[in-house]
Amino acid sequence: RFCWVQNPSMQRILRGHYLREIISATRPGGRILELGCGTGWLCMLLAKLGALDVIGVDFAQAQIDIANQVAKESGVGDRATFLCMDGTSGQLDVGHFDTVIVHGFLHHLTVTEIESTLASIPKLLAQNGAFIVFEPIQRQMIPGSKTSKWQALLLQLMHAANRGRTLGVRKFSAVELDTRKKIAHRTVGVPPHGPSPKEMPFDVGELEGYLAKYFLVEKRTRCMSISHLVVQEWLLREISHPRSTRVALPIVARAPAWMDQRLVNGRLAPPGVWTFDMFLCRSIVPI
């Protein structure tokens, strides 16, 4: 609700531009498969944006149960289906999917797991099917480089959610403080970096090296950077100040989404931040 997934209205604003690109890469009526779908939010948004046949798979039964329930409640149960399985294990039909999506989970895996996951995908794709991978890339800070104006504006908008504390205008309820504590400690307790094996972005050029063995990258798009973090602060603010924040949220969400596009699509990628890049690929491995 607050961090990565957030809520459907915020997701459409922050991610609608690249989700529509995913749909456009699939032939009309084509089948879309997402590996590692979690609670299914991406599949459901694709269905709401026009995709007719979306399947999400994940090996966590609890998440699949949530996905199926929410899909039914939100009216997309006829277009979005969720199955509990390891999508790389060979249980899915070979050559059955027009588009296969891996959205933000390769960077959690070991090198061996990344390679085995990518090796399994060409078998799933229909002829000339598209493989779309969306992952964070770390741009190292260059000595002497300055924060871009768009990055500075995004940070100002993020901090604006918590201004007014000294005047007593901005207060933190017990529920908000507890939620912030849970977010801050969500990676604590399971080594090395919490519940997932690791939470580390790819270095520049690293992901391309993995992809090159199995795929030709047709297109690469820098999609977003820190707009979701800006919205996160305002969603947390809503816990303590529901009325004023709800009025501001639609504007607040659109502003960082617009600024983020200017930031990531600038002449140079912003140094010192993660950018979330999307790669549109075609298989070079004969089935």
The average pLDDT is 87
Helical amount: 40-55%
Biggest sheet details: 8 strands, mixed
How many helices? The count is 9
- Low-pLDDT stretches are none
Distance between the termini: 40 Å
**Which geometry do the CA atoms define?**
globular
Residue fraction in strands: 15-25%
Computed structural class: alpha/beta
Number of beta-strand segments: 8
Element-by-element helix/strand order: HEHEHEEHEHHEHEHHE
The radius of gyration computed from the alpha-carbon positions, rounded to a whole number of angstroms, is: 20 Å
Write the layout of secondary structure elements.
Elements lengths: L7 H17 L6 E5 L5 H8 L4 E6 L2 H13 L6 E5 L12 E7 L7 H14 E14 L10 H12 L13 H11 L17 E2 L2 H6 L3 E10 L2 H14 L1 H23 L9 E10 L4
Parallel strand pairs: 1-2, 1-4, 2-3, 4-5, 5-6
Antiparallel strand pairs: 5-8, 7-8
Helix pairs in contact: 1-2, 1-9, 5-8, 5-9, 6-8, 8-9
Overall description:
The chain is of the alpha/beta class. The chain has nine helices and eight strands. Strands 1, 2, 3, 4, 5, 6, 7 and 8 form an eight-stranded mixed sheet that branches. Strand 4 (97-103), helix 4 (111-124) and strand 5 form a beta-alpha-beta unit. Helix 5 (149-160) packs parallel to helix 8, helix 5 runs antiparallel to helix 9 (242-264) and helix 8 runs antiparallel to helix 9 (242-264). The longest helix is centred in the last third of the chain and has 23 residues, at 242-264. The protein is globular. The termini are far apart. The model has no long low-confidence stretch (mean pLDDT 87).
